[in-house]
């Protein structure tokens, strides 16, 4: 039984993402293992259909490795690899073609399902596949001739974009074609990365066989430069590292955001795309969460953030006009467009003192040192302005500030200008920290 209230809250919370994603281009890569996993793959196709129904332009790049290996085993042929890349002779190429055709047909059949008792009832998903990838032979490496194993030479981005504009779902198998008419076996993730980069996709989503861990700990987000550093230090598990490498390559190539997801998590795509904290690992050129000076368009977010604390009497009530006047004093923590933290530094340069004011955090994002980050940011600002002491007036968070170096002080220790506007009814405690 679905909890109606929880469903309504989630649906309302998803609305900003529904608006933000409409008309955007997403490239989704999943391995052949996902296609072979019958019950989970049906759910994945339903989620892909939902994304398409919400107006998202989709390019799918499936892998076919297990399907190739099954065919080779049936023929009694050993799988040959060098440096993690398949060596594709003429016989293996036939297996590659068969596997690509099978996977393409299976995906198209799934996306064509529209019976009344399925989640895709009444939908029509036109799927287009084609020769969008021009390839060249990988050649000879370490004396090994890779024969019909190739690498991406060019992506027909204009052709793909034209189909996406017609609301077609584009399916790209890991095959490439040469101007001389040859067919090459390509690594699916490399194809997906090249396609996402060529399209300057808004999102590149990689469904993996396991979640992304860093030193055996889950990681929610990394910048591409951070991820590159961790790759160089070999801190990702071996099965995860190639996916991170693909993500970094795509981010460095102009893809805004790359998402690494565990395909075994039911609804991973939906959780990642329509909830604020997602369900996987985000890799982007710019930080997903940033601490920066407040802007005029942050004022509604700040007001919404501090309103509950004002009602509880934790913060002094501030009007929009007052915020606008003092906006240069404020900094915010922004997470994916949401203001989740703020603080202000009001300077009294004549006595070399500053007031730390309006320190607030969204209740869902407390306990992860964001308050400390805001405090350190304000302290650094005060130091740059030549202030020697920082004071705070608080009614409820005395111990938090004491633990961070503030000491009790008297009302008369405040700047005279601040004493004049002190609200005696609040009876706020005065704390001062020497910088």
Task: Please provide a brief summary of the model.
The protein has 435 residues and is an alpha/beta fold. The chain contains 15 helices and 25 strands.
Give your account of this protein's structure.
By secondary structure, the chain is of the alpha/beta class. Helix content is 38%, strand content 26%. The chain contains 15 helices and 25 strands. The strands form 7 sheets. An 8-stranded mixed beta sheet has the order 5-10-2-1-13-17-18-16, sandwiched between helices. Strands 19-20-21-22-23-25-24 form a 7-stranded mixed beta sheet. A hairpin with a 4-residue loop joins β21 and β22 (353-361). α4 (65-74) packs across α5 (90-112) and α8 packs antiparallel against α9 (241-252). The model has no long low-confidence stretch (mean pLDDT 92).
How would you describe this structure in keywords?
single chain, 435 residues, alpha/beta, eight-stranded mixed β-sheet, seven-stranded mixed β-sheet, 38% helix, 26% strand, elongated, acyltransferase, EC 2.3.1.1, transferase, cytoplasm
